[in-house]
Amino acid sequence: MKKDLTRQQYLDLYYYMRLNRAVEDTMTKLFRQNKIVGGLYSSLGQEGISVGTAYALEKKDWLAPMIRNIGALLVKGVPPRDIFTQHMAKYTSPTLGKDGTSHFGDLDNLHIVSPISMLGDLIPVMTGVAMAGRYLGQKIVAMTWIGDGGSSTGVFHEGLNFAAVQRAPFVLILENNQWAYSTPVKRQVPIANLADRAKAYGIASYVVDGNDVVAVYQTTKEAVDRARAGEGPILIEAKTMRMRGHAQHDPAEYVPKEMFEYWKQRDPIELYEKFLLGKKLLDAATKKELETKMEALLAKDRDFAEASPMPPPELAEKGVYCTGDDCHKIAAKWERNQAEVTPPRSSVPAVWKVAGFGEGKGSGGKNAPIHFGDTASAEALADNEGKLAPKAPAKIVTNGTAKSAAKNSRKSAAHLSAKKPSKVPAGKARR
Ligand SMILES: Cc1ncc(C[n+]2csc(CCOP(=O)(O)OP(=O)(O)O)c2C)c(N)n1
Ligand SMILES: [Mg+2]
């Protein structure tokens, strides 16, 4: 039984959807003024998904957005100012102008993992976040989003399978917006519901109307509660439509006009507004109040972003390599002895010899690096560690002839590193 929302919750969903659209409208204008650095993606018509799903999370939960999830960032508490400065590559942005779009995170406060451009890679990453939360006894849920196109990557399947066997408290939102660049979903997947992919991993799934924000919220809330209770990962397919091209550069002329017309009638904000007015949850005065608040916030944050400086050129070489004080602070907190969780070193030194390899003039000396096939160094290493002396490999191929290990073991490893090349029959190439 889906729980009803309070009036405040209904109004929150409305506010964030409106804010999501208004932030993106503002950025479209900035893009046309050539003030956006890099690409600009639109979530027009998909606001109900970003907002409804993120709203189902608790403050302590974690999310990782993809390109059409600005709404989720706003719900999580990212101010429009960070989104504007980030897209304009300003020095005041979360990445100090080093990166664009939504490529920033906040691990300390808001629990946002930065996006990864390689579609699907966030699935195993967020599975890891979910598992880490469980190890630490935090009862958190991790969430990320994927598109219909992204759901055909190998890592989607590997990641979801991994999440399933680990029973990770992880919720994956699959935004089926009918297109991946210019490829319609029917051309890349021969199934009607992408949620059916969950069956392959033995996990629960839902299909929801992505343009109905209340349905999205209620479905996600149920999924988040189930994942938190230990039922394992859950896949939600939200059906919707990408109402613009892939990004600003793409006029989407390959999309049939009737398709746009059909979905225009199903605009999630217009539908929701009608619903709220009909239920008397929203009236003209409340709407005006909310719009005034939103416009003031956007104007202030946009002005701040426009007035902000670009990063100083010297910054380009800072934070690239870890050089001491400016290193990142992430360090493993070993709950178990480090040696216990580190794989043992091999007791078999590499003694395979490739003639002439690793015998360069610079390869001698106590501190010389150990090369592949460098028998003397390998022996020294083994001795130093009190381990085994190098053994003859099981099989050696010389001039195309396989010799048995027994035969070779009579000859020492030194034979393998003989300085003089053995005789090569005329006309035969030496291997
Ligand atoms: C592994 C991988 N392959 C290709 C790309 C290039 N790429 C970026 S977005 C995109 C289309 C994604 O379509 P979909 O997953 O349906 O998401 P949508 O753009 O519709 O939101 C592609 C092919 C990528 N980023 N990562
Ligand atoms: Mg798509």
Characterize the structure shown.
The structure is a single chain. With 431 residues, the protein is α/β, with parallel strands linked by helices. The protein has 2 domains: 7-317, Rossmann fold (3-Layer(aba) Sandwich), CATH 3.40.50; 343-412, no CATH class. Helix content is 37%, strand content 9%. The protein is built from 14 helices and 9 strands. The strands form 3 sheets. Strands 1-2-3-7-6 form a 5-stranded parallel sheet, sandwiched between helices. α1 (7-32) crosses α3, α2 packs parallel to α8 and α4 (80-87) runs parallel beside α11 (284-307). It is globular and about 75 Å long. The termini are far apart. 34% of the residues are buried. The site of thiamine diphosphate has 16 residues, from β4.
Question: What distinguishing features does this structure have?
Answer:
5-stranded parallel β-sheet, 431 residues, Rossmann fold, alpha/beta, 2 domains, two-stranded antiparallel sheet, single chain, binds magnesium ion
